[in-house]
Write a structure and sequence with these properties.
The protein is an alpha/beta fold and about 150 residues long. The protein is built from 4 helices and 6 strands; from the N terminus they run βαββαβαββα. The protein has a single domain, classed as Rossmann fold (3-Layer(aba) Sandwich), CATH 3.40.50.360. The chain binds flavin mononucleotide. Keywords: Flavoprotein.
Length: about 150
């Protein structure tokens, strides 16, 4: 099976913590997992991903974290073929904001528009993300196990 690529976008570190927790869980489940800060990437870097997860918070009025803004504006304009990618999005937000998980919603939609296939529906976590993460991780890794079985590797 391909490696799992875990991407995060954060302002104050919550999404990065969830990303490293996801990596630990992936390792426990027998996956080789790499963690990437979207702020260090360009959209082109996504074209070799086969299994990907995006763990992103929302700031401002539905905006990406500052470090991920250049990546996001480039992805909005990019004409990429991501049809080789299967992905899931875990958003971190706060229900008190009108644009609850606005960036996670936009990213999830854009990846699908560029041809990527969802492994799971987007999950919009609230401030209690540490309580909702374990159940999401159970669903995500169960889904990955099915992918691994059906691919026969
Ligand atoms: C100034 C400010 C603006 C925020 N804007 C939004 C928002 O528009 N939508 C949302 O769902 N959450 C919003 N949040 C909540 C954050 O996304 C949430 O606290 C998240 O856990 C931060 O994760 P991070 O540390 O990975 O950046 C905002 C928080 C702050 C402090």
């Amino acid at each position: 099976m391909p490696d799992l690529h875990i991407h995060f976008a954060t302002m104050t570190g919550n999404a990065e913590t969830v990303a490293t927790d996801t990596q630990s869980r992936a390792t426990d489940e027998g996956w080789t997992a790499h963690v990437h800060d979207l702020g260090d990437l360009t959209p082109q870097d996504l074209t070799d991903r086969e299994l990907a997860v995006f763990i992103v918070s929302t700031w401002g009025d539905g905006e990406p974290p500052d470090d991920a803004a250049d990546f996001w504006y480039a992805l909005e304009e990019a004409n990429l073929d991501l049809s080789g990618m299967r992905f899931a999005v875990f958003g971190l937000g706060d229900k008190d904001y009108t644009e609850f998980n606005g960036f996670a919603r936009q990213l999830d939609a854009r990846l699908a528009t560029l041809g990527a296939t969802r492994l799971l529906d987007r999950f919009d976590a609230d401030l209690d993300f540490d309580e909702t993460f374990p159940a999401w991780a159970d669903r995500f890794f169960t889904r990955l196990a099915v992918e691994r079985e059906t691919s026969g590797t």
